[in-house]
Specification:
globular; 16 helices; Zincin-like; mainly alpha; four-stranded mixed sheet
Length: about 400
């Protein structure tokens, strides 16, 4: 048996089974008793509803992930990649255009297969639990915008990668690395002004106590922002959130209208203090640096496999091409990707604790953030008792009870 065929089949299957096991453990960790900390925030009905929501999400993820894994395996075993490659090649264009056609076909095919799951999640599960506020028009308009945006940005990125691997010789991986880093940073810089407004309306926060307190906090902590905005998150969901985006002089604070509705002024300031903490503590720079290093390693490793005949034989390919090699390497990289995500999540959870600490220390009001976490957990029907293994494997944020316990230590 082709060794690459075995590794990829085993990796995809193992990743799927690992997900099934972790979700089974997570379901088993659901406790019928409301944690003492949340009495007064959750009533019996809401707590039962949050557990039903978790169970629904687990069942949906089990079915969708298993189905998509089976489809990928069947597509591979039945020569789907070869058929798609022949189709793209028959247009008679050069390597770069052929590669873009290949990727466009694969992306559209994947999205069409996953479309029923997206519709079910949005209009059945999220609708049932009172979260969904979108309609079919908005849903499909988002799809179209995503296609256009993905086509432009993805086309630029893929064209550069295909061009460098075609012409730059043994150092093509380094040129690809540099190109991706430059384009990615440029996108982050323009995203607040040109990309994010395509999906949400950004309205400058009106004058008043909230804007004054946010501005004063940012000023006191040396955090320069270009604006504070409210976005129409309620257009799609009742879930609340807040974030800041961009860097340099393009940093924006964005508050979901649902967040402003649910939290007090001090609680909102505490949430934003947490987000600002990520920047002040260097978390964003560290994560960007880690991503840049990881990207370089991926391109270096990729350069050893793009022309590997045995790897292409594992997929039953008639021709060896750069564009197909990119996909095959991504599949081969699956086990490494899973391991790296575990380490990345662990680092992220550590950063979340540190950002909570920053918020508690700078606002001098740890209970404001605790109150916000409790309200957001209730409104989002969060799972209050996730299984430790599931947290280890999937969570980029610590469980809310752990965060509250940590914040209370600042008032001890």
């Amino acid at each position: 048996m082709n060794i690459y065929f075995f590794i990829i089949i085993f990796s995809l299957t193992a990743a799927c089974l690992l997900g099934l096991i972790s979700r089974k453990l997570n379901r088993s960790a659901l406790s019928p008793e409301l944690p003492e900390e949340f009495k007064g925030t959750f009533d019996a009905d809401k707590y039962r509803k949050s557990q039903d929501y978790t169970k629904a999400g687990i069942g949906f993820e089990n079915i969708s992930s298993t189905f998509m894994t089976l489809v990928t395996l069947l597509f591979m075993i039945c020569g789907g990649f070869n058929i798609l490659d022949i189709w793209a090649t028959n247009f008679g264009y050069n390597e770069i255009i052929t590669g873009l056609i290949f990727f466009a076909g694969l992306a559209i095919l994947s999205d069409l297969i996953s479309l029923p799951f997206s519709l079910y999640q949005t209009f059945v599960i999220e609708e049932k639990f009172g979260f969904n506020k979108t309609n079919l028009k908005t849903f499909f308009m988002d799809k179209i915008k995503g296609y256009l945006l993905g086509g432009i940005i993805g086309g630029i990125l893929l064209s550069g990668i295909l061009l460098f691997f075609s012409l730059a010789g043994q150092f093509a991986w380094a040129w690809c690395w540099l190109f991706i880093v430059v384009v990615t940073l440029a996108i982050q810089y323009i995203a607040p002004t040109w990309i994010l407004p395509l999906f949400n309306k950004f309205t400058p926060l009106e004058e008043g106590e909230l804007k004054d307190k946010i501005g004063q906090f940012a000023k006191n902590n040396g955090f320069e922002i270009s604006g504070i905005f409210m976005i129409d998150g309620s257009k799609r969901s009742t879930k609340a959130n807040a974030y800041f985006t961009g860097f340099g002089k393009k940093k924006r604070i964005a508050l979901f209208d649902t967040l402003i509705k649910e939290l007090s002024t001090d609680e909102i300031v505490a949430v934003l203090a947490h987000e600002i903490g990520h920047s002040k503590l260097g978390h964003i720079r560290k994560m960007i640096l880690m991503s840049i290093i990881n990207t370089g390693i991926v391109f270096l490793l990729m350069s050893f496999f793009l022309g590997n005949k045995d790897l292409f034989a594992a997929f039953g390919m008639q021709n060896i091409s750069i564009h197909a090699g990119l996909i095959f390497f991504a599949l081969l990289y699956t086990p490494v990707s899973v391991v790296l995500s575990v380490f990345s999540n662990a680092k992220s959870r550590k950063h979340e604790f540190e950002a909570d600490n920053f918020a508690a220390e700078t606002t001098k009001a740890p209970f404001a953030l605790i109150g916000a976490l409790k309200k957001l957990s209730a409104s989002n029907l969060s799972n209050l008792t996730p299984h430790p293994f599931y947290v280890w494997l999937e969570y980029s944020h610590p469980p809310v009870l752990k965060r509250i316990e940590n914040l209370k230590s600042h008032n001890a």
